[in-house]
């Protein structure tokens, strides 16, 4: 099996009238993303020729390592991997994606081969977690049909995860789940007359050596941070994942001082975590946090939803000022809100 990817001829190109342009999940969200791991430029371009007119976005990688990194951060709907990449075997790339959970189990992984694939190769590919093995030449029309069917199924899972109260990947509450739980916590606080604090946490990665830019967390590092947040929280606290790499804690019977102390302990714990950015450079995780607290007469006026908003606003202020890692809502100027 020599290097190769997709062969597109005039007869294999589908009639665009046969397919509707694939719609995004909603008007504000990106089109379906296909990460393509292939060394040759012409090969990636030939795939774009088929997918581009039908609403797909093709993200290219030219090595196994780049494919792994892009698949982790690009949130792809499909990953297509050439059987032979310059630095890694395509089956090994597929296995790492599955074993290290860099993509969800509902993300289709496809391996392409040049010509017919022997049974042993097929067996190895499927054991590695591949959904399918595509042999050259690839029929453009059938390619589109398969991708549209797979992505339609994947979106059902994506939609279910979005409306779920619990994040499937981390096991923490989703933002929707946090909104429901904070109402329960506030109702109990009203009965007891005790304060409630909310902490919004937004970690960022920066290289130890090199540019001082701060980068979003990869899925792997975000999962580690999520575990650290959950482990430090008390049994009575409500912990959620409010974004790809953002977290929140609802802390009942907690004043602002106690919430800030919790963030400081979390910051020390996360600072000790080993972390790597996408290019393999050593890095550290910096914690930005926003804290909001309500108590006394304010408890009667709130259902808790605005507490989440206040903490998030304080977090955005902390991220914009960068003079300190922790900001309280009381410190946020009116012009910022």
Mean model confidence by pLDDT: 82
CATH topology of the largest domain: Alpha-Beta Plaits
The biggest sheet amounts to: 7 strands, mixed
Specify the structural class: alpha/beta
| Shape type | elongated
Q: Can you identify the CATH superfamily of the largest domain?
A: Reverse transcriptase/Diguanylate cyclase domain
Per CATH, the class of the largest domain reads Alpha Beta
Q: Write down the Rg.
A: 23 Å
Low-pLDDT parts are 1-28
Q: Return the CATH architecture of the largest domain.
A: 2-Layer Sandwich
Q: What percent of residues are in strands? A: 15-25%
The helix tally amounts to 9
Along the chain, the helix and strand elements come as EHEHEHEHEHHEEHEEHEEHE
Calculate the terminal CA-CA distance, rounded to whole Å. 59 Å
Question: How many structural units, i.e. domains?
Answer: 2
Number of DSSP-assigned strands: 12
Q: Indicate the percent of residues in helices.
A: 25-40%
């Amino acid at each position: 099996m020599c290097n190769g990817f997709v062969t597109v001829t005039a007869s294999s190109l589908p009639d665009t009238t046969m397919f509707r342009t694939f719609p995004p999940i909603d008007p504000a969200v990106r089109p379906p993303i296909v990460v393509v791991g292939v060394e040759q430029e012409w090969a990636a371009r030939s795939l774009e020729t088929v997918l581009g007119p039908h609403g797909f976005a093709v993200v290219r990688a030219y090595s196994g390592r780049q494919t792994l990194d892009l698949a982790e951060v690009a949130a792809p709907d499909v990953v297509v991997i050439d059987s032979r990449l310059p630095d890694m075997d395509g089956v090994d790339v597929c296995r790492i994606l599955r074993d290290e959970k860099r993509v969800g189990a509902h993300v289709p992984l496809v391996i392409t081969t040049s010509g017919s694939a022997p049974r042993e190769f097929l067996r190895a590919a499927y054991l590695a977690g591949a959904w399918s093995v595509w042999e050259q030449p690839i029929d453009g029309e059938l390619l589109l049909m398969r991708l549209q069917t797979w992505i339609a199924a994947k979106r059902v899972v994506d939609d279910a995860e979005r409306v779920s109260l619990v994040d499937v990947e981390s096991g923490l509450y989703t933002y929707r789940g946090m909104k429901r739980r904070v109402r329960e916590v506030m109702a109990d606080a009203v009965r007891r007359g005790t304060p409630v604090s909310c902490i919004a946490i937004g970690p960022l990665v920066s290289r130890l050596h090199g540019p001082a830019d701060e980068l979003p967390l990869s899925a792997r590092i975000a999962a580690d941070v999520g575990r650290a947040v959950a482990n430090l929280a008390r049994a009575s606290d409500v912990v959620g994942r409010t974004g790809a790499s953002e977290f929140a804690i609802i802390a009942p019977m907690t004043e602002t001082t106690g919430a800030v102390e919790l963030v400081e302990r979390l910051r020390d714990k996360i600072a000790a975590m080993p972390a790597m950015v996408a290019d393999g450079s050593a890095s550290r995780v910096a914690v930005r946090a926003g804290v909001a607290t309500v108590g006394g007469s304010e408890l009667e006026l709130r259902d808790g939803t605005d507490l989440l908003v206040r903490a998030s606003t304080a977090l955005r202020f902390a991220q914009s000022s960068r003079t300190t890692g922790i900001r309280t809502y009381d410190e946020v100027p009116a012009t910022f809100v």
